Amino acid sequence: MMASLGPHAGFIVGAYLAALIVTLAVIVWVWLDYRRQRRILADLDARGITRRSLRQGVSESLS
Amino acid sequence: MPISDFANPSKFLTLVSRVLPWLAVAAVIAFAIGLTQAMQAPDDYQQGATVKIMYLHVPSAWLSMGIWAVMSIAALGTLVWRHPLADVAGKAAAPIGAAFTLICLITGSLWGRPMWGTYWVWDARLTSVFVLFLMYLGVIALYWTAEEPSRAARLAAILTLVGAINLPVVKFSVDWWNTLHQPASVIRMGAPTIDPSLLKPLLMMAVAYFLLFAALHLAAMRNEILRRRVRTLRLMQANEAAS
Q1: Fewer Cβ in 10 A, N or C end of chain A?
Q2: Which residues touch A9 (CB under 8 Å, ≥6 apart)?
Q3: In this structure, is the dihedral angle defined by the CA atoms of residues B68, B70, B72 and B75, taken in order, positive or negative?
Q4: Could you tell me if B125 lies within 8 Å of chain A, comparing CB atoms?
Q5: Is residue B238 assigned to a domain?
Q6: Do B223 and A30 touch (CB under 8 A)?
């Protein structure tokens, strides 16, 4: 495989490895962030701190 | 259900939970096809096998500009219509855009060394893309450092719209100035100059990158909505404790 990539195989493999590492880093970061936010919300919920919108049935405000 | 209903954050979260798995699977399939085609594609008659770097470099370059364009539309939504999801979209897109721009810079550098004899040169194309990368970092830093989210949203939206001036500079830098970087060979007036045997895997990889961005953006927007819910709950908790 490496031989078929010619004399610049190191640059080609390096480019694919770098792209893979950066892409995986973003995917893992997004996934871990999701887990963290869900954990915090579950913790708040367990302590009885729930959204006013849920209690009062009003539409949610993001700001 | 009309599409405008998804502007409601709760309904948007429902949409994300339905669409995200399909987008992720579609991205994986597209990457599998694209990478297979890229590995089987012939070498370039001048550049040899290093042309395989193009299948990473070019789609990431397109996305680096495309994501800033998405952020610019979101910035208009923040400043003109003051829609909260617009700011969520802009904030969620910035780190992803920075990542794709970084991939573009790294792969371009690793392509440049064997072809140009140097990893880097301060020509107009490379410099304008590097400026784009710095602007992404600037927007991310603005969101991190501003205390008040609504103020951060307005400032980031202004910075994004000002930064959009750089997009035509990036695109046309190879036409306006003498650059070491080659001129456009796919997105240009007239037909692409690239051979179809190389163009086909390139377009497949572009589809894969777009699907990956769509999936990551929706997931990051969901995270941001949840983060704002956490903030709202903590503020409510603090207010109740104070009263």
Answers
A1: N
A2: A2, A3, B49
A3: negative
A4: no
A5: yes
A6: yes
Alpha-carbon distance of B221 to B9, in angstroms, equals 10
Tell me which residue range forms the domain holding B120.
9-181+193-242
Q: Which amino acid, residue B189?
A: M
CB B99 to CB A25 under 8 A? yes
Rounded CA separation A29/A35 (Å): 10
ipTM, 2 dp: 0.90
Within-domain flag for B155: yes
Mind listing the pLDDT tens digit for each residue in A12-48? 999 999 999 999 999 999 999 999 999 999 998 888 8
Q: State the angle between helix axes of B124-145 and B149-163 in degrees (0 to 180), rounded to the nearest 10.
A: 170
Residue B187 lies in a domain: no
Decide: residue B235, CB within 10 A, 0-12 exposed, 13-18 middle, 19+ buried. exposed
β-partners of residue B48 are B44
Tell whether B217 is within 8 A of chain A (Cβ): no
